[in-house]
Design brief:
It holds the Pfam family YjiS-like. It comes from Aliirhizobium smilacinae. InterPro entries: YjiS-like. By secondary structure, this protein is mainly α. The protein has one domain (20-91). It has helices spanning 20-44, 50-55, 60-69, 77-91. The chain is elongated and about 60 Å long. The termini are far apart.
Length: 98
Amino acid sequence: MSTTECGTDIKLVKASGLQSGGSTTLVRIKSVWRAICNRIASNSLAEFDDYQLDDIGLTRGDVVIALDRSGVLDDPSLLLSQAARERARTRFSRPARR
């Protein structure tokens, strides 16, 4: 899953007569659209089997937690990438010697 895979087809162009408030609104709309696309892509991770999730550094629990903790308009891919990074950091670490 790539966060850029679900790119928008909407071209956002700043018009010369557009005030800063309108520009901010377009940025927010684009942000919400990206979050919705990423949520759809994250939902498709639930269809992966455990081996496929392990290949990308996630567990089924990571997917469930990310989808539960993020709101409808929030981006769960941020939580998923954090979980994958944390697992990669600790996956092959050696236990401390005593």
